[in-house]
């Protein structure tokens, strides 16, 4: 009698600010500027939001959305080949600019046979390069349309889909033959709450205020890494993650 192959447990990670100690999109835009693909003047379109965030007078979301606006405005007409070159350079420079906690967690989960899933709103091409070396099995990221000549049109394909990380997770579970039983999820902002609600072990890593407040209400695991020290902030947490 043939036995059905057991379903693999899944671990889902946000990438920017959770594994990578920056944003892949921000670094990609900076490389485009450095290489003359984008004009230097585009920095003025997000510099104000960047300074306000650094000075704790604004939030990170406003900063990253300003960078997204610059990318969308200037990517039209750029050959895909140049995008790949810039993405490879970003990963070559910053592959190891990561958090110790999440890198160690990933290594442990791989040993346990988990299916590693990355979901990010960063460009998928850049995300693929970054996540491959870390050992992810599947990545979902923003996919930008190209024309017949291999140049970007400035449009995002299925933007609504990648914005709903819970739906992405559920699709991956069905498509890859996975199970949410004993699953692990790691996120850092309120945008990750939707998939953290679905997993067996939700981890809020370096959370922003909105995610932190939600985590306190739910009793979720909260981890903060600063310099070379990892802190656990929520102590009243059930440690049996087998269900």
From TrEMBL:
It comes from the Bacteria. Pfam families: HAD. This is Uncharacterized protein. It comes from Candidatus Nomurabacteria bacterium CG1_02_43_90.
